[in-house]
Queue: 3 jobs
Job 1
Amino acid sequence: MQTKLVEVFQIGAEKGGVLDLPEDAWPAPGQHIACQRAKGDSDPLNSQVFQVIGEEGHLNVASIPEDWQPGDILTVSTPQGRGFVLPPDLQHVALLPYRVSPGRILCLMREALNMGAAVSFFSDTVPPVEIMNRLPAAVEVSPISSLLENLDWPDFLAVDLERGDLPTFSTLFEQVDLKLKGQVLVRTAMPCRGVGECGVCAVRTTKGWQLACADGPVFPLKDVLHVAQ
Amino acid sequence: MWLNENAPIHKHDLVFSKPFVNSAGLLGFAPDPHKIPFISNLGAFITHPISRKPRYPASNRACLPYPGGFLLHTGLPNPGISRSVSRYKRAWAGAPLPVIVHLLAEDPESLAEMIRKLEGLENVMAVELGLPPDCDSEAFRKFMQASVGELPVIPCLSPEQIPVLRETLLELRPAAVHLVEPRGVLPNAEGNLLTGRLYGPGTFPTMLHASRELLDDGFQLIVNGGISSKLQADTFLNAGAIALGLGSTLWRLKPEFLV
C-alpha cells in the first residue's frame, strides 16, 4: 500500500509524522507498520513506526528517518505484531513509559478514557511540552514511586520500555507479589519485520524465547517480568 | 546464464531454475509463501543456519546500521538439527522450490551426524556448510571429508577466508562455493564492540572483487553481494555466477527487481 507523509513534527527526541492512511489501516497502540520511501530510499532497512499521541483524527507515527520530508510517498505494510488490548472491565489504568518517550504509551489514554476508566500516567521525568499539552485534566501525572506505593490502585498496567531495560524494570517489583494485569511494549530492533525470523528481536519469556516482531512487541507483563533478557 | 546447456550434468551438479536464492539466516527455516510473496522468484530456498544442538539468541544481539548497510549479530538461534528436521521436513518436502539446508560446521563428527539426518529427505537439494571464522585449511579438509554423502555440499566462504582456504578448495573442488557476506565489527550504543555479518549495498564492491577470484578458478559460484538493483545482479551473472544470494533486499516491502 502507498501513502503520503503529510507533515512531520518533533515529539521529544523523536521525529514523527502524519500519514494519510484510512482509519482501518491504522496500527493499534503497540502495533507497528513497516515503511519505506517509494522512490530514492537508500536505507537498506525499512523503518518500523508506531502510533504516537497527536492530533485526534490523524495517524501520528514515530520514529521516522531524519531525511523524510512532507510530501514523500511511502510504501507501507499492514499493521504488524500484537498491540495493547485493554480488558473490558477496566476501572483504573496506569500508563508507565520506563526510560522512553511517552508518545507511544499515551495512545492508550483515549481508549481507556472512552471506556470510562480512570487513567494515571507515571513518569520520573517531565514529559515534553508538546505531550503535556495533549494530556486532558482527567489524567493524573505522578512519579513512578507513587505507583509502587499504590499497586492496589490500577487494575491494568501498560508499560513501554527498551528490551535492555527489562531486567532493571523487573527489580522495581522484586519485593512485590504483583497481582494486577498488565502488558509491556518491548522496544527492540525488528529489521526483518517477521519475514526472516532473524532473532535480533528475541525476548526471553516464561514461555521460552519469543520474537517481538511476531509474538509481540506487546507481551503480557507476567510473561516477561523477572525472566526477560 | 545460470544453466550451461552445453555442459554435461553430473549427479552433484547444482541447477537452479531461477538465478536467485536467499542468504542463509534471512528468510527463516522453511519457505512460507504467505510471509514471502516473492518466493516464486527464487530458484532455491536456503534455511537458517542449523547446529547439532539448539542455540539461543546472543545476549548482546543487535542490528547496527551504518552508512551503506548494517551489521547483524544474533547468535544464530536455532532449535538444533533433530528438532529442525522434525519441525520442517514437511514444509521442505511441500515447498514450491528446492531447499538447501545450511549447517553450522562445529566439528567433523557432529557435521557427519547432521548430514546423515538430512539424506533422503524430500526436496532437499544440497547442504551448505557455514564455516567457523577461524577455519584453517586442515579443519576445512576435515569438514569436507565428513560431508561426503548423497547430497551436494556447498562450503560458504566470506571474502576474508579465500586466501586461507583457496588452495584446499582447488584441490577438493566442491559442487559449488557460496561466497557470503564479510564479517565486520561495530560499536553498539554502549560502546561495546560487536562482531557480525555485514549486509546491504555497501558490500557490493567487495563481493564483486572477491567473486572474480573464485570464478577465475572455475568454481560454480553462488554469490551474495549486497545486490539491490538489476544492474548489479546482471554484473554477477555475466561474470559467470550460477546464482545470486539476496540479503537485506528481501526484507524490503518491495524488493525492487523481484516484484
Note: Chain B touches chain A at residues 25-29, 35-36, 48, 56-57, 59, 61-63, 65, 68-70, 72-77, 199-201, 228, 248-254 (CB under 8 Å).
Job 2
Amino acid sequence: MRSYECAVVFHPAVGEDGLKTSTVKYVDIIARSGGEITRVETWGKRRLSFEIMKQAEGTYFFYKFRGPNTIVDELGRNLRIDEQVLRHMIVVDEQAVGNEPKLEGPIEPSFRQPEREMREEVEFRGERHERFERHEREERR
Amino acid sequence: MARGTKGSKDTKGKKGDKREKREKRPLRKKKCKFCLDRVTFLDYKDERRLRRFMTDRGKIAPRRITGTCAKHQRMLAMAVKRARLIALVPYVREYYR
C-alpha cells in the first residue's frame, strides 16, 4: 500500500459533465484495482505553460489515492488511451504518510485554497518582487 | 601614443588596487530560503514558489545565484521537472517580456 497522487490535464473542450463522468470513471478504476481515493482537487481551466496538442489551456484535476502499485499501471494505461486527457502524471505522494482519511460521501472536487500563495507573496516582497509581478500579469492575459 | 599607454597603465594600476580592496570585503553569505522556512517537502503544484527559483527563460536557477543548499536544490529540481511535465512551468521560453 502506498499513497499516490495523479495529476490530469483535460482537454479544454471537455465540459463539466464530461469532467464528472471522467472523474467517476477514474475513481472507479482505482476502486476496482483495490485502492481508495482520499482526495479529489481541481484548479479549473488554466493556461498551460506551453501548447499541448495545439491547446493553450487545460483543466487540471488531482486525484489522491492509496493502494497497491498495480493501480499505477492500470490507471496510467487508461489515461493514455483517453483522448480527453492532454497530460497525466502519477507520482508517489510523499506528503501523505498514509494518514489521510478516506474520502466519504460523493466525490466532489474541491478547489485549491490560495492561502499559501498569499503568505508567500508578502514574504518575498523584496528582491524578487518584480519578477513575481511580471508573472502575474502573464497569467491574466 | 606613448603618453596614452602610460596614462592607461596608471589608471589600470589604481583600478586594480580598488578591486583588490573590494575582493577583501567578506561577502554576505546567502541563506537557503527553504532552510529558513524549514521546508521538508517541496510540492510540484506550488508553481509560484518554483518560478521564483527559475530564470526568465525557464531554466532552474543555479545555487550560486539563489543560495539554495544542496539538499533543497535537489528537491527543487525534482519539483520543477514534475511541474514541467504537466505544463505548470515552461521547459524553455524563447520570448519573454
Note: Chain A has one domain: 2-111.
Job 3
Amino acid sequence: MRLSDRDKAMLDGAEGPANREAMAALVQLGEAFDAEDMVDIGYAHVHAGMAMYLGDVELMEDLASRGAKMAVPSSTNIANADMAEWQATRAPESLVRLQRRAETAHGAMGTGGCFTCTPYWAGHWPTWNTHMASIESGVTVFCNSVLGARSNRDGSFAVYAGMTGRYPRFGLHLDENRQPTHEVVVEAAPDGTTDFTALGYAIGAEVTNAVPLIKGLTRRPNLDELDALGVGMATSGGVAMFILPGVTPPYTASDADNDADLPSIRMGESDLRAVYDDFCSGEETGFDIVHLGCPHASFEEMKHYAALLEGRTVRDGVELWITTNRTVRQMARDSGLLKPIQASGAKVISDTCPISCHFARTTSPDPKLGVEPPTLRTIVVDSAKQARYIRDMIHCPTLLTSTENAVETAVTGRFIPRW
Amino acid sequence: MSEDTKFEGRGIVNGTVTGPALVSRTPFSFLGDVDIRTGDVIGELSDLKGRNIAGQVLIVPATRGSAGAWRFLHQLKQHGTHPLAIITGELPDPSVVQGAILSGIPIVSGLADRIGNQVTDGAMLRVDGDKGLVALE
C-alpha cells in the first residue's frame, strides 16, 4: 500500500500515540481490502462510546487521554441514554453518568457531539465526492445515495479516520463500485416514511449486498422518505448505496434507461404489506409504548408530530416516545413545537431510542451499573428498522403502522394498522 | 487427498496464536449468533448452535453482513469469550476486520474449505495472521 509522507510520519508516532495506533489500524484495514493508497476524508461520523457495552465508553476515553483530536468535521453516533432528560426514560442514573463520560471524551477530542443516527438533521451534510467514514450504516447509505459523498459501512474505525483525516481507498470510495448491480422496479405507491422503510427493508432482504437502481417511483420522495428508504435497505441487507436516477449524484433521470443487463426484481404493494405483517406480532390492545423517530426525527418530522398531537392527549397507560437528536430537539423547543407535543403527554427523547437504551437484552453492561431491562409487552413503531431491532435486541413483539396511525393508536389506546 | 499440515491463505489481521479448531459450514454473524457473556452460539442459522467459540480457532466459510459486527467482537474480547483466531473462506466484512484489529484477533482468509475438510474439532492449529499461514500442530 502506498502511503503519503504524513501517513508514514503518523506510523512513526510524529502525531502522538493515538494517531500512531489509528494509522497502523487503517493500514491493516487497507491491506486486507487491497487498497492502493489512502484518501483524504472530509467528514467522519464516529462511535459515541456506549454505556450499555462493557468497556466501550473507555475506548473513547482511552483515545482522548492519549491526545486524540478530530482532524476533520465529525459527529457522534447514537448513545445509550438521554444525557440531559434521562428521567423520562427511567434509565438508571449510573448508566447516564457513564454515558456522560463519553460526552466529555468527545468534547476533549473536538467531535461534534450530536449523539444521533441522523447527524445530517443536526447540520452534518457532506457534499458530492466528499470521502468520509461512518459507523452508522443508515448514515452511510444516506450520504452515498442522497448526498453523493463516498462512504463504506464502517465500524469503530470511523474514529481513526476522523483523527487522522485518512481512510484506505476501497469499496465505495472507488468509482467502479458506485455502479448499479441490480434493477428494482417499484410497482407500489409508497407514501410516508414508514412505507419507505418497508420498501427499503423488502429491497435489502432481496438484494443483500448490492447497489440497487431504483425505478418506478411515481414522485420524488422527500428527504425524510429518502432517509427511510436507505435505512430500510441497510437494516435487512448489506446495502451501503442505492441509485435513484435524478436524486443520487451524478445520476440524471435519463440514467434510469441504461440498465438492460442488470438482474431485475419487482416490488409491489404485497411486498410492502409483507413487511408490515412480519412486524405485527404483538397484541393489538396490549402495548406499553408507541415510538416515533427511527431514525432520529428531522425538524420536518417534529412539525408533523406537533400538528398530529395538537389538542390531543396520549391515553392513560400508554407512553408515546418521540426520539430525535439534541440539535433538532433544541430547534423544536425554540420554534414552539415541543409545547403541543409535550402537552399531549408525549415524551421527546434525544441521544438514544428504544433499541439503543437500557431496554436492550443482548448487551452486557458492567453489572455494577445495575441495569435491569424492563419487561415490555409490545412496542408500536413506525419504522421497519426499529421493529427489526426491537425483535432482535429487546426480544419484544412489535406492531408496525404509519406515523399518523401510530399517533392515533397512542391517543385512542387501540392499534390502528396501516392497511 | 494428501494430508496437509500447513496451509497458506491470506493474512487479514495480524497476530499469532495456537488453539483448538472449531469447524462450521454455515456463514457466521457476530451480531446475533453468539451470546457475548458466554461465547455460546445461539443463532438458529449456524450449525454451531449449542457450541462455544471462546478460546477456539473459529473456522467459517463467510461472515454474514452487519455493520455492528465489530462491536460484538470487541464485547467478546471484553468478556473473555472471544475466539482466539478466525479462519474464513471469503474475505470477511470490513466491520469484522475492524473489530478483529481492535480486539487483537488474527484472521486468515481463503482457507475455510481446505482446513475444514482436513481437520476435526479440537485439532490444535497455529494461526499466523501476519503471514497468512495456518499449521496443524
Note: The domain at 6-136 of chain B is CATH 3.50.30.10 (Glucose Oxidase; domain 1).
